[in-house]
Specification:
single chain, alpha+beta, eight-stranded antiparallel beta sheet, 3 helices, 47% strand, globular
Length: 138
Amino acid sequence: MKNAESTIGGMIDKQSVSFIGSVDDDGNPNIKAMLAPREREGIRTFWFTTNTSSMRTKQYMNDPKACIYFFDGRFFRGVMLRGTMEVLTDPASKERIWKEGDTMYYKGGVTDPDYCVLRFTASSGRYYSNFSSQDFEV
């Protein structure tokens, strides 16, 4: 896919919601809507915030296989990225994406034990636009 990073990256940056997928203990897929990633590095690495105590966090700790999906309803196009999700609890990662106002979700601040970071690393993807899908490597 030509210019995948600029085309897909531009679409991702305009979305306020993303979807993350995980695998449960029985090997079944699970999906959840999330706020947009806090940061991204190209279309390879994405940083999200979540609760350490969440079901999804436990699933990623047991099986890091993951996917993320972004959808642009205005132009009916979307991208799925496949890869792995890491659960990060180190201070540097938590401080990296902390924003003022996050205490609404994490009362203890950046050091709240129920605050962690999800870092997704993509290996491949599938882009849909104009009634056509394209697979690509990241």
